[in-house]
Amino acid sequence: MTNIKIKETQAFIDLVGRAANVASKKPDSIRSGIMVNAKENKIAVRAMNESVSVQVDAIDITETEGEIDFVVPAKLFLDMIKKLPKGDVELVIEDKKMDIVVGKSSYGISTYAVDEFPQAVAYEEGTIFQVEGPTFAESLSAVVYACSESEARPILTGVHILSNGKYLTLIATDSVRLAANAVPIIAPTEEFKNVVVPKTSVNELVTLIADQKKVEFSISQNQLSLKTEGITFTTRLLDGTFPDVTKLIPSEFESEVVLHKDELLKALDRSKTALGPKEKIARFSVVEGTLPTLTIEGKTDITKIFEELFVDEAGVGISLKLNVHYLMNSLNSMSSKKVRLQFGGVAKPMLVRPEVEGATQFGLLLPVR
Amino acid sequence: MKDMYPKNGRVILHVDMNSFYASVEMAYDPSLKGKPLAIAGNPEERRGIIVTCSYEARKFGVKTTMPLWEAKKLCPNLIVKKPDFERYRAASMGMFELLNQFSKLVEPVSIDEGYVDITDSHELGSPLEIAEQIQKQLIRQLDLPCSIGIAPNKFLAKMASDMKKPLGITVLRKRDIPTVLWPMEAGEMHGVGKKTAEKLKNIGVHTIADLAKANEIQLKSLLGINGIRLKERANGVDNRLVDPDAISEFKSIGNSTTLPKDISNQQELFKVLDRLAEKVSVRLKRKKVMATTLSITIRYKDRHTITRSKKLLNPVSTQDEILKMAKQIFVSHWTGHPVRLLGITGTDLVENDQAVKQLDLFSYEKDAKKEPLINTVSKLKEKFGAHIIEQASNLSNDKKQQIGTETSFNKDFLQVEKMKKQDD
């Protein structure tokens, strides 16, 4: 029997929460558990799923007599410790169970066999790059929506990270729309490409690094590793070659307009509601004139929509059909007040850019014929 | 000749082929004539029920949907043949082609019956003469017997064609209704099935005359709006027009097949899917539509049946596209157990020229190259009509190709007919 005294309950909950987030969602798998290692004033929590392995460490939030390892179901354990009454929390670990004891409350949870829990994926030294945690997290989450949902082309289910030595470019595409962003690298590094992080790992990575000032990544053969104070994270990378999209992105445009993002989003949201779940396509037209506008038209068997939005700058008239939902996804990933829509042609990609100086982010979407 | 036609109102023929499949078989093989013949779904397999039979077989009491063994008991000399849908379709096409020579207003109802509106065909003769010509020409050109009803509307024409079989021609005028139609049992009326007939009996409606005079409120509470409609029909009222396009109002196109044995080998099942995909593709193209949702039906050995569908980003109509999606859906839902029946159905159909295509980042340049061509084509269509030019792949001049299977038995074969008209 070993006792772990929790000295900082909130810090302990946060720590478990970070690992539990990664634990596999498949309920019967051993990977749905987290492995806790406690020794004296140190504690480490490990979790893994099909793509990711993570370990979070902390000092002085627990006190243990000697050393103990145990594996408990992640979600259940986290939910329990979040709801404990006020008071000193103690974990009492016996052969096949663990009791959470607070005052007169006591909850026992069966534990999994420790030796069945998979080995941690080792941190591997490789190409190193450093970025600011919040910036990287924000940029990643702004592109991940465009990843493919379909396994038809597995490589497109991840975010492509490439480096020119000074900044990282992040690209996600499901081949119908694309999202791109750039993140400065703190110290100059090597150029690399074809580092493709699975979509699911991106979400887990983002929560881990969002509050880390500086994070250092290492890219090796088929994994991306991160080691920072208290966090060791590795994710597998997707096999295959991410297609080169640079040549497919137009640099010349038939027409461009600038307009208020929120105004456009609200109009699109109304259109989406009126079009219903079955119809996603509307016609977008740039109308020239003394007061240039962007119009949105669409119809179903029972509804008809028309929106007319004033635009700040307008190019020549153009009219094409777009997926309303896709355009909304793209706009929602941007934080600027105004956006610039650039139309390559009726059968060519259109771009959405935040209308701010030095913006590196853009969304791309293919029209519907 | 115009005075043989009503001043107001229409003249409608209902042409009903007599025991069509059996007659087609006899036309192909005249030695079968005069013998009891039945067409049954795969005689040696478990689907052995009578699809249709000749009048000679009917004399023995053989009926449609009767199991084969029962029919053989009633008529030991029964000749049983497998259905040859390709043959029946060819014959059906021939028949509708012939009907089209008498009027542009031909509405196919099924493979072996259709309505013809001959109101404006007075130059060809009196209604009776036209009916006689149709009957004779069907015999002479296709060696196929039919019965024809002549009436002022579809319902009466349908009732009339039923009155004399085989090779009958019956005229049913409005003034004949009390003497001819009303004495008939309500159950004999087109549109009144067994269950409806039972219900009608419960309220004292036995004959069509009873129905014609029945209380509307009572009818409506018993049969809903259909009750009112039946009463109208019983009084000889039917305002439905003969609509040659009625056939294109379809909602889904699907093919399924019961496997000769239960199969659990994935490769073999893929081959079955491939064949089904081909059939669905041919039918989609024939109808000039594309499917935006694809469903797969799997029936297992224990007869447990599931149908799973997937909404597609882009509508499909080619065999490759259909097969690709069908395999995806199949693989993600198949339990691995032996399969008895497989089916592919395309739904949410859109017409080819209304189908939208979400362009793809990796192929839009190819599409963009077609752009000037597409513009030219749409200008041509605007100027000369939608059928002035079409993609060769959309033209289905593959009349010989077998379309549909055992279970896809619906009206698509008639589509060829329509297309030909458009080509003219």
Which quaternary structure do these chains form? heterodimer
CATH-defined topology of the largest domain in chain A: DNA Polymerase III, Chain A, domain 2
The biggest beta sheet of chain A reads: 9 strands, antiparallel
CATH homologous superfamily classification of the domain at 247-358 in chain B: DNA polymerase, Y-family, little finger domain
Integer-rounded radius of gyration of chain B: 24 Å
Share in β-strands of chain B: 15-25%
**Mean pLDDT score of chain A:** 92
Largest interface: A-B, 23 and 16 residues
Could you tell me how far the N terminus lies from the C terminus of chain B, measured between alpha carbons in angstroms? 29 Å
Q: What is the molecular shape of chain A?
A: elongated
Spell the H/E element sequence of chain B: EHEEHHEHEEHEHEHHHHHEHEEHEHH
How much helix, percentage-wise, in residues of chain A?
Answer: 10-25%
- Which topology of the domain at 247-358 in chain B does CATH recognise? Dna Ligase, domain 1
CATH class of the largest domain in chain A, please? Answer: Alpha Beta
Q: Can you name the CATH architecture of the domain at 247-358 in chain B? A: 2-Layer Sandwich
Low-confidence stretches of chain A: none
Shape category of chain B: globular
Describe the protein's architecture and organization.
Chain A contains 6 helices and 26 strands. With 369 residues, chain A is of the alpha+beta class. Chain A has 3 domains: 2-116, Roll (DNA Polymerase III, Chain A, domain 2); 127-246, Roll (DNA Polymerase III, Chain A, domain 2), CATH 3.10.150.10; 249-365, Proliferating Cell Nuclear Antigen (Box), CATH 3.70.10. Chain A is elongated, with a radius of gyration of 25 Å. In chain A, 40% of the residues are buried. Chain B is α+β, with helices and mostly antiparallel strands. Among the domains of chain B are: 20-86, MutS, DNA mismatch repair protein, domain I (3-Layer(aba) Sandwich); 177-235, 5' to 3' exonuclease, C-terminal subdomain (DNA polymerase, domain 1, Orthogonal Bundle), CATH 1.10.150; 247-358, Dna Ligase, domain 1. Chain B contains 15 helices and 12 strands. In chain B, the strands form 3 sheets. In chain B, strands 5-6-1-7-8 form a 5-stranded mixed beta sheet. A 4-stranded antiparallel beta sheet of chain B has the order 9-12-10-11. Chain B has a 3-stranded mixed beta sheet with strand order 3-2-4. In chain B, α4 (85-100) packs antiparallel against α5. Chain B starts with 11 loop residues before the first strand and ends with a helix. Mean pLDDT of chain B is 83; it is low at 396-424. The chains are: A alpha+beta (369), B alpha+beta (424). Chains A and B meet through loops of A and α14 of B. Chain A: Residues 247-357 form the DNA polymerase III beta sliding clamp C-terminal domain. Chain A: Residues 131-244 form the DNA polymerase III beta sliding clamp central domain.
